[in-house]
Specification:
five-stranded antiparallel sheet; Tumour Suppressor Smad4; 22% helix; disordered N terminus; six-stranded antiparallel sheet; Arc Repressor Mutant, subunit A; 2 domains
């Protein structure tokens, strides 16, 4: 028994006539099926850094300078799909199959998600930096991106930490925000410290540790000079954050002294 869409009554299945699909509708169904086949395999984990952004599909986070940027679930999936397929153009049919696998939606929904992503990452449709529109075909991620997972696997991690007074804090890979906000990587509850004061970026791939001011009220100082742009840090550098002096320490295996043997006298 099937339901008649006009009357709402149940009628035998033999009462319904099968209507052939039009050529256009048939091609659309075929493209949809092809898209399903192409995305049937398991999705790879996306853990990528592009510009000042880091995206992780496992934790479903898009982060900029230590703070999370909100994206709707569909927009997040769309951005991951484009980054995973970079620099190849992803056709609209494939995007529909990946983002809406069980639902038919019009292309306007896709355009809305692309607009949401561009607003979140500061991109422009007229002068794209990250997402390029290929009219009549689809979209492509055109920015420079680094696979964080592969970089960690191939490069020895760079160990560094900051020390002030009797306290120490180990820095993690990527951006480490310093500030008065308890959610910061390095929390400084001291006078003159802004909520999000500065950021130290650890990049094991390039073996560089850099410092940047985040528009703090009282400024960030390195070697007694104000920090106006991103600057490189070396072992022993002193960073002035408000009333706090932070000392940066970098671990270098080639500079580790040998362990001295302790000789004990046997009585």
């Amino acid at each position: 028994m099937l339901t008649d869409g006009r009357t709402g009554r149940f009628r035998p299945a033999r009462c319904f006539r099968r209507r052939p699909l039009s050529p256009g509708a048939g091609r659309q169904v075929l493209r949809k099926l092809e898209g399903f086949c192409r995305v049937a395999a398991a999705r790879a984990t996306v853990r990528v850094r592009f510009a000042q952004f880091t995206i992780d599909s496992d934790t479903r986070q898009l982060v900029r300078g230590g703070s999370e940027i909100h994206l709707s679930p569909k927009a997040f999936d769309l951005l991951c799909t484009l980054i995973e397929s970079r620099p190849k153009v992803v056709e609209k049919a494939d995007l529909h199959a990946r983002i809406w696998p069980d639902t038919y939606v019009v292309d306007a929904n896709l355009n809305i998600l692309i607009g949401e992503i561009r607003r979140a990452i500061g991109d422009s449709a007229q002068e794209p930096i990250f997402i390029r529109t290929v009219h009549g075909v689809g979209y492509a991620f055109c920015g420079t991106a680094v696979d964080v997972q592969s970089a960690r696997a191939a490069v020895e991690p760079l160990f560094c930490w900051v020390a002030w007074g009797s306290k120490t804090c180990q820095l993690s890979e990527g951006d480490n925000v310093i500030g008065r906000d308890p959610r910061c990587s390095v929390w400084l509850d001291a006078p003159g410290v802004s909520r999000r004061h500065a950021s130290i970026r650890v990049d094991s791939a390039s073996r560089r540790v850099t410092l940047a001011d985040l528009g703090s009220t009282n400024g960030t100082f390195l070697r007694r000079a104000p920090v106006h742009a991103e600057v490189a840090l070396t072992d022993g550098d002193v960073i002035k954050i408000g009333a706090v002096d932070l000392t940066i320490r970098l671990w270098a295996t080639d500079k580790v002294p040998e362990t001295k043997r302790i000789r004990r006298r046997v009585k």
